[in-house]
């Protein structure tokens, strides 16, 4: 009897714990408590002190001064309690709303699984009825078609069930994060009590350290060094108040510590998820629904990438260093670090190429994570690896821009600014570049594909010199405004290149600086002898029909990843060298996607 596959019943539907009604009831009680505390707050900050003082009020003197001192802690405690209860109620309602949606989805999945179980059972019985019999060709084709259809239904169910699990975990994490912010409010309240201020006083005193009467918008006008110095000058209570009251001005603040940016961006991410989730339930507003759905999808992709990274690298800090779901015309911005950017000695910034946007964050974080692990294997005791989606790379409807330098030039400016912001924060903490024992930072910038063009424009005119220790260029179609390794200003021996022999994109650069735009129109080929970079072996990994090994440079076990780990860990002298391309190699390779240098090396092994 011909083999006819009987699909296995998929795993049970993901459990969704909790009661939306109970969570909503808790939110109602918290709101009522907040309203009650608000009345006490009004008294403590208003009528309780309005007639007391030394300026001609009803009651003055030492007794009045003592009374004001005694009432100040109570006033700040009521302010903190009101803020905490209000935020807690808001978090509970958002959690309850999402929980109701998740439970509805689970009920639908349960019904689908029950129906699948019946269909599979009936199909199994029908197939068994043909045992020992010759099945007509038409009947066999029908059974095989139904088997494939059931298999697709099982796969679709499993995919939807996995999505339910991800959303359930995200809802739980969002709620826990929100409660953590409430706990932070309490911590700030203790500082408040000790200082005798309320939250608005702390925000005002913190902003006044920019200049008297400054507003949050003034933070955006500061350069990274100024922003780093401002943050360092705040006292702990002022820092806590700033994170609570205006995280949107801190999450992408160049010059601020990574731990600060991470805390602010996690709040911004939670806000996007909560607001977008609420907006998707607004009836008869298709435009609002569409925008909210897209923003929610992007935010959840970032959240999923963070959760997966935490699972893949237990105990390693995962930092959301930059986040803006609406950046670059909606393509989005996300910068994620595997490792602590505030303290790591060996730091790699990974700059991706074409097709990259915020939807790509998961794969980019995985690549950054593999490099983090390889750097540790290669000898680093303190590493961080950054997935940098911080520019408008050609993708989707603007893929045509990949043949032009405009997006790379703009991206180079953004990359240079982000690196300057990062190094400013490290310098402020005395953990930046130095000499000998004072050198606390080994900073490596790695570009892939169109990202190498972006890195080239970032390093134009030696702009990265003095900040970056190494530059690495992978599968480059051309390096933009930099036409030789020496132009980066960090020494030719500190510029590395990986170019797989059959990487189509890596054969598009020009062999000479005089014709620096090459076949791809993006600049010089960095794998040439003339360019002067240190070329390392980069063969192996998955190959695709059109672009060859272009996307294999970060794959586990490859020559490329091993050499990248050596570079990032400060052991670049230990790379396995590859011969550089001659002018003829470049011309021949552009047509045939071969590399005589690689072929000669492999033939000799």
Write a structural description:
The chain is an alpha/beta fold. The chain folds into two domains: 20-171, no CATH class; 317-603, 3-Layer(aba) Sandwich (Rossmann fold), CATH 3.40.50.1820. It is built from 15 helices and eight strands. The protein has helices at residues 20-45, 47-50, 62-128, 137-195, 199-208, 224-233, 236-245, 258-279, 286-312, 361-377, 406-428, 450-458, 559-568, 583-592, 596-603; strands spanning 318-324, 333-338, 346-351, 383-389, 442-448, 470-474, 495-498, 534-536. The chain has an eight-stranded mixed β-sheet with strand order 1-2-4-3-5-6-7-8. β3 (346-351), α10 and β4 (383-389) form a beta-alpha-beta unit. α4 (137-195) crosses α8 (258-279) and α9 runs parallel beside α10. It is flat, with a radius of gyration of 29 Å. The chain starts with 19 loop residues before the first helix and ends with a helix. The relative contact order is 0.06. Mean pLDDT is 85; it is low at 53-57, 183-196 and 399-403.
Question: Could you give the order of strands across the largest sheet?
Answer: 1-2-4-3-5-6-7-8
Kindly provide the name of the CATH class of the largest domain: Alpha Beta
Order of helices and strands: HHHHHHHHHEEEHEHEHEEEHHH
Binned strand content = 5-15%
Overall tally of domains: 2
**H/I helix tally:** 15
Largest sheet: 8 strands, mixed
Mean pLDDT: 85
Write the CATH fold name of the largest domain: Rossmann fold
CATH architect. name of the largest domain: 3-Layer(aba) Sandwich
Structural class: alpha/beta
Q: Can you tell me the overall shape?
A: flat
Low-confidence stretches: 53-57, 183-196, 399-403
- From the alpha-carbon coordinates, what is the Rg to the nearest angstrom? 29 Å
Assigned CATH superfamily of the largest domain: Alpha/Beta hydrolase fold, catalytic domain
Per DSSP E runs of 2 or more residues, the count of β-strands stands at 8
């Amino acid at each position: 009897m011909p083999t006819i596959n009987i699909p296995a019943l998929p795993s049970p539907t993901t459990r969704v714990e909790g009661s939306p009604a109970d969570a909503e009831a808790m939110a109602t009680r918290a709101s009522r408590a907040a309203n009650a505390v608000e009345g006490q707050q009004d008294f403590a900050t208003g009528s309780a002190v309005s007639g007391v003082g030394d300026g001609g009020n009803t009651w003055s003197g030492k007794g009045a001064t003592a009374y004001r001192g005694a009432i100040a802690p109570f006033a700040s405690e009521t302010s903190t309690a009101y803020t905490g209860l209000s935020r807690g109620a808001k978090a509970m309602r958002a959690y309850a709303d999402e929980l109701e949606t998740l439970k509805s989805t689970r009920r639908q999945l349960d019904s689908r699984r029950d129906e699948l179980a019946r269909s599979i059972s009936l199909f199994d019985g029908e197939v068994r009825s043909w045992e020992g019999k010759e099945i007509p060709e038409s009947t066999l084709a029908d059974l095989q078609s139904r088997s494939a259809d059931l298999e697709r239904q099982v796969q679709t169910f499993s995919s939807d069930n996995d999505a339910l699990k991800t959303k359930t975990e995200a809802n739980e994490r969002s709620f826990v994060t929100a409660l953590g912010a409430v706990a932070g409010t309490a911590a700030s309240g203790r500082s408040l009590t000790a200082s005798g201020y309320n939250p608005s006083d702390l925000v005002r005193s913190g902003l006044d350290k920019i200049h008297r009467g400054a507003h949050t918008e003034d933070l955006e006008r500061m350069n990274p060094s100024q922003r780093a110095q401002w943050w360092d000058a705040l006292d702990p209570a002022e820092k806590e108040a700033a994170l609570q009251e205006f995280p949107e001005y801190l999450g992408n603040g160049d010059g601020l510590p990574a731990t600060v940016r991470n805390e602010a961006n996690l709040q911004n991410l939670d806000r996007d998820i909560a607001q977008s989730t609420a907006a998707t339930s607004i009836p008869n507003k298709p435009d609002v629904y569409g925008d909210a759905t897209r923003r929610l999808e992007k935010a959840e992709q970032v959240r999923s990438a963070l959760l997966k990274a935490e699972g893949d690298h237990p105990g390693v800090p995962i930092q959301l260093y930059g986040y803006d779901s609406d950046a670059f015309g909606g393509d989005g911005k996300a910068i994620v670090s595997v490792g602590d950017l505030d303290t790591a000695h060996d730091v790699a910034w990974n700059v991706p190429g074409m097709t990259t946007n915020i939807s790509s964050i998961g794969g980019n974080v995985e690549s950054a994570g593999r490099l983090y692990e390889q750097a540790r294997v290669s000898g680093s005791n303190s590493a961080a690896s950054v997935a940098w989606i911080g520019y408008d790379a050609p993708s989707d409807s603007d893929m045509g821009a990949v043949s032009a330098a405009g997006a790379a030039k703009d991206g180079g400016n953004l990359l240079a600014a982000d690196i300057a912001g990062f190094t400013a924060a490290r310098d402020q903490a005395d953990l930046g570049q130095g000499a000998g024992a004072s050198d606390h930072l080994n900073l490596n910038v790695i570009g892939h594909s169109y990202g190498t063009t972006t890195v080239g424009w970032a390093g134009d005119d030696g702009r990265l010199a003095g900040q970056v220790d190494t530059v690495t260029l992978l599968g480059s179609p051309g390096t933009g405004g930099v036409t030789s390794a020496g132009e980066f200003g960090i020494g030719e021996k500190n510029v590395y290149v990986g170019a797989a022999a059959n990487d189509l994109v890596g054969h598009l650069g020009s062999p000479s600086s005089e014709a620096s735009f090459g076949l791809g129109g993006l600049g010089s080929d960095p794998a040439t002898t003339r360019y002067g970079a240190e070329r390392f072996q980069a063969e192996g990994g998955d190959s695709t029909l059109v672009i060859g090994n272009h996307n294999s440079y970060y794959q586990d076990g490859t020559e490329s990843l091993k050499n990248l780990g050596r570079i990032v860990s400060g052991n670049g002298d230990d790379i396995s060298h590859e011969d550089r391309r001659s002018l003829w190699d470049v011309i021949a390779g552009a047509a045939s996607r071969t590399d005589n240098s690689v072929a000669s090396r492999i033939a000799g092994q």
